[in-house]
Structure to design on (419 residues):
């Protein structure tokens, strides 16, 4: 591709401007999905796309597509993007880098007057994080047929607000049925969110796949009781059971070392009063591993632990699996485009399987897909201290641009080769 180079300063300025929408005192970002802050960043992003002459459409899960025409507009677009929602104590780069690097790539093409063969589209997927509405990657999951739209729209946050109501409230429920939007390919640039690239001194991660993840919701039920007047042997302490479950999830992951991870990230203790023995606890479990068979083994151990721990304590316990995203291998042609783009730019690379979940993991079910990683300082993410440098962000954006153009060239050549 002729010398098309993204503008590092412009990208960084966009990243910092977006980070100010929901910016926190500690330098992070709290911009939960479908809140007014999400609406503000969506409006900001839409205005920037339209200023570039892009056509912005929204589907009925709120996912945004910003389109630039190519030579063959009868072809499905090559899409690239990520998400603009964050964790409650999120960073400036998780998700935003992938969306804004795509914006910068399109700006570079517009300035150069470069017309792609296929149309291209920047995508902002709704609710990648799953922090407010579980599970994560909801919109890309509906897009890929993993969840039905009605099931997703009915998911509620911990205050009982539904996804559908929140989407209406911010004015981003589009007309297009989610999933009726064929893509020629999808590329996602993301921060690694782990320590490997930095430890090995690599500039770019050529992401070959994503590990599997399963999310569960657990309810432990005992009996509210007086902390002073209730003898120990008469208690049905839901929090004691929950605490032992937290420890057991950790033990299950360690028993499937070295690649397994297991976490209880959310817990609600009721009535949460200092002098009441807790009668009910809600908690979440997040299990991950690159192999489905190991996830099955971890799940079996988790299921067995419920009665093992709760029965002796006189507790009732129920568990629901609310997400099961199997391990994903990305499309070889898309991965080859990423590799070629990184090599052309002279970056040091290594192949890597993503520890974190991403929209690309679901999109890969319906379109050829690949991802690009840049290093995270100290491997820290889902943390207000999350950081990648201006140069690292620009390197990722450059590879993203060139990977899309490489894939676009392959599409054109394939068309040229066909009778
Ligand atoms: O959970 C994840 O891996 C992603 O950050 N949503
Ligand atoms: Mn992310
Ligand atoms: Mn995240």
């Amino acid at each position: 591709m002729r010398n098309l180079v993204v503008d590092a300063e412009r990208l960084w300025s966009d990243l910092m401007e977006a980070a100010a929408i929901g910016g926190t005192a500690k330098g992070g970002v709290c911009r939960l999905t479908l809140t007014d802050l999400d609406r503000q960043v969506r409006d900001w992003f839409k205005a920037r796309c339209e200023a570039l002459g892009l056509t912005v459409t929204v589907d009925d899960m709120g996912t945004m597509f910003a389109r630039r025409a190519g030579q063959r507009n009868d072809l499905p677009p090559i899409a690239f993007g990520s998400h603009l929602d964050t964790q409650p104590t999120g960073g400036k780069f998780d998700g935003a880098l992938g969306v804004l690097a795509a914006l910068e790539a399109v700006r570079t093409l517009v300035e150069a007057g470069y017309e792609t063969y296929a149309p291209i589209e920047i995508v902002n997927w709704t609710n990648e994080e799953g922090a407010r509405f579980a599970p994560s990657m909801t919109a890309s999951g509906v897009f890929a047929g993993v969840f039905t739209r009605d099931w997703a729209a009915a998911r509620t946050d911990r205050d009982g607000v539904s996804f559908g109501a929140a989407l209406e409230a911010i004015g981003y429920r589009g007309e297009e049925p989610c999933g009726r939007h064929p893509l020629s390919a999808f590329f996602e640039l993301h921060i690694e969110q782990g320590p490997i690239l930095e430890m090995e001194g690599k500039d770019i991660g050529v992401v070959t796949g994503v590990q599997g993840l399963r999310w569960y919701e657990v309810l432990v039920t005992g009996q509210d009781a007086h902390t002073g007047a209730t003898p120990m042997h008469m208690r049905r302490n839901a929090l004691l059971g929950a605490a032992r479950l937290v420890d057991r999830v950790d033990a299950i992951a360690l028993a499937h070392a070295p690649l397994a991870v297991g976490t209880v990230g959310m817990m609600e203790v009721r009535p949460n009063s200092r002098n009441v023995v807790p009668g009910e606890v809600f908690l979440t479990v997040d299990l991950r591993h690159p192999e489905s068979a190991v996830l099955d083994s971890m799940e079996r151990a988790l299921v067995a632990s419920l009665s093992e721990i709760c029965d002796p304590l006189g507790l009732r316990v129920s568990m629901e699996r609310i997400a099961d995203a199997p391990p994903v291998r990305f499309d070889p042609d898309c991965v080859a485009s990423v590799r070629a783009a990184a090599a052309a730019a002279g970056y040091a690379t290594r192949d890597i399987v993503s520890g974190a979940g991403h929209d690309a993991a679901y999109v890969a079910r319906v379109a050829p897909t690949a991802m690009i990683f840049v290093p995270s300082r100290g491997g820290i993410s889902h943390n207000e201290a999350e950081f990648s440098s201006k140069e690292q962000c620009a390197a990722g954006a450059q590879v993203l641009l060139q990977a899309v153009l490489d894939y676009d060239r392959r599409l054109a050549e394939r068309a040229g080769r066909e009778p």
Remarks:
- The chain has a mean pLDDT of 97.
